[in-house]
Amino acid sequence: MSYSIAEIAKLLSLNIIGKENFADYKIKNINSLKDANGDEISFIADRKYIKYLNTTNAAAVIMDFSLLKDELPTNLKFAILDTKNPYLAFARMTQLFYSADNVESSNGFVLDNDFIDKTALIGEGTVIYPNVYIEKASRIGENCKILPGVFIGQNVIIGDNVTIYPNVTVYSKSIIGNNCIIHAGSVIGSDGFGYAKDGKEYVKIIHLGNTILEDDVEIGASTSIDRGAIGSTIIKKGTKIDNLVQIAHNVSIGENCALASQTGIAGSAVIGNNVIMGGQVGVAGHLTVGDNVIIAAQSGISHDIKDNEVVAGSPAIPIKEWRVSMVLFKKLPELFNKIKKI
Fold it and tell me: What is d(CA 100, CA 336) in angstroms, rounded to the nearest whole number?
């Protein structure tokens, strides 16, 4: 698929600056400034890549012209597509050129009927690839793509326009909303880590609840989201979860959150809306993290966090305090030696 520079500008609400004779030039692909060819488009959202503006072969570059105009090459070789948020424009552009799943659409479905229960309902335009196993009374909406090796348990409900990549397991009673993406190897709705102690032995708690992913949720590869022991584990609308994340039973994660890789959230924790967690964050169970909180990588959350806080460290403290602590920490050997001499 290709678009002219003028078409891209119109579709993404961008302004063309310079090289207006390029307006009808066809763009076939997206690439980095460093590697782009003459029929490709790129973007710059970080000043550390300015050096590549002098050497790029891209036909067009998305940027905030007002911020970079004094640092551009004298003889521009590319058209500028101006926007105040080039990274967002880049995201929109990827959706323009490529579907989120890169799987070709089809009017029918490819399947072996022996692996799909007769009571399962498959929506119009949904593509079921070979070696998918769907148990009884499950419902899959329209225009979904279920790739090879996926297991879908009993009484699962999947909305429209959902893509599930190979070897995903969706346990019984799970609910997946519209426009969700689940990447390879992830597990939705497995039993949580729940046991009762009987002397020296552990007695397993059978988890009776389910897992709910609301609309527009994306789950990275090899992530596990446990079902509720009683009730639901809920990932709310628009939240994005990276690879290798563990979400325990009865956790509630709010809308439009972003959780980076290797984060772990213990049982019954409540995460507010618009929360950002860096990689390897750990959240203890039965805690509440408020709205609009930012948690730095490798932080340990051992107490409730109020709305709008930015925290770091383990145990986590306000990030300004943490930075001061790190400065003092580096001075400890020097201070120790001074004390020894007293």
Answer: 56
Per-residue pLDDT reduced to its tens digit, 257-292? 999 999 999 999 999 999 999 999 999 999 999 999
- Is residue 10 within a helix (H) or strand (E), and if so which, with residue range? helix 5-11
Q: How confident is the model at residue 160 (pLDDT cuts 50, 70, 90)?
A: very high
Reported as half-sphere exposure (CB side, CA atoms, 13 A), residue 214 has a value of 15
Set 183, 249, 286, 303: catalytic member: 249
Answer yes or no: do 195 and 126 share one domain. yes
Cβ neighbours for 168, distance < 8 A, ≥ 6 positions apart: 149, 150, 151, 182, 183, 184, 185, 186, 187, 188
Residue 249: active-site member: yes
The enclosing domain of 54 has a CATH number of 3.40.1390.10
Per the domain annotation, does 331 fall within a domain? no
Single pTM value for the model:
0.87
Query: Is residue 111 scored above 60 in pLDDT?
Result: no
Range of the domain at 198: 113-320
